[in-house]
Design brief:
mRNA binding, mainly alpha, 9 helices, LUC7-like protein, two-stranded antiparallel ribbon, disordered C terminus, disordered N terminus
Length: 255
């Protein structure tokens, strides 16, 4: 985001998006105005869910207002303006992109797990390229964490460091597979078995410490993609039970 865009967003928050209206002009904002976030009206704004994660979508820049949401849902144009379809299309793309990432990570894990056949020359070349890409991502994360730390944003910096740690774990597996080294072992001498989270695509240690498991499930990326998955399922229910009053069914949703 440019400096001018950042300034505009700050002014919107302080004075409202129609701060430049001339005297006497009707400045009442309606839910169908351009500056109102339509995704927020339908359910929630995905841009708010992944701040400072690998899936950061950037700032939304539009108005999020509970009053606008209520006005939309109480209006006779509810579900007639295409907002729901646009929202569902957007989160479906996020979900599909994540499914592709999960598959890529599972394919990588199938190569790097212990007790598998040695990689072919073609597989080695692919893994070497992935090692380079992961190294770049690690460096980018560490530079970002250092910048956030210098700005006093400690919690955000820690989240970025966690991303770097995930990249390092994936890179270490690839490096071990390339040289034929044994997998790392746990305190009891057993080789670490890895798995891929089916929700957010992160690499996890099988039977890891409960604290680390809990931290993963509470992380922004996991929570965000779990919410997207649940929302898609809820919208399917919405259409299946079209005979139920909209206000009654909407009350069952937990966006």
């Amino acid at each position: 985001m440019s400096a001018s865009e950042q300034m505009a967003q700050m002014l919107n928050e302080l004075m409202g998006p129609r701060r430049n209206a001339v005297a006497g002009e009707n400045i009442e904002i309606r839910f169908d105005d351009e500056e109102v976030c339509k995704f927020f009206l339908v359910g929630y704004c995905p841009n708010e869910m992944f701040v400072n994660t690998k899936t950061d979508l950037g700032p939304c820049g539009k108005m999020h207002d509970e009053g606008m949401r209520k006005a939309y849902r109480d209006s006779d144009r509810f579900e007639k303006l295409g907002y729901e379809e646009a929202f569902l299309s957007f989160i479906r793309k996020l979900h599909n992109d994540m499914q592709k990432k999960i598959k890529r990570n599972m394919d990588r894990l199938a190569i790097t797990q212990p007790n598998v056949a040695p990689p072919t020359e073609e597989s080695k070349a692919k893994m070497e390229k992935e090692v380079e890409e992961l190294t770049e991502k690690i460096n980018e994360c560490m530079a970002q964490a250092e910048s956030l730390g210098a700005a006093g944003k400690i919690e955000e910096a820690q989240q970025v460091v966690e991303q770097a740690d995930n990249h390092k774990a994936a890179r270490d597996q690839l490096k071990r597979a390339l040289v034929g080294a044994p997998a790392p072992v746990t305190d009891d001498g057993m080789a670490k078995q890895m798995e891929v989270c089916k929700i957010c695509g992160c690499f996890l240690i099988v039977n890891d410490a409960q604290q680390r498991i809990d931290e993963h499930f509470l992380g922004k990326q996991h929570v965000g993609f779990a919410k997207i998955k649940a929302t898609m399922e809820e919208f399917e229910v919405w259409h299946l039970y079209s005979g139920i009053a909209k206000t009654e069914l909407l009350g069952r949703f937990r966006f």
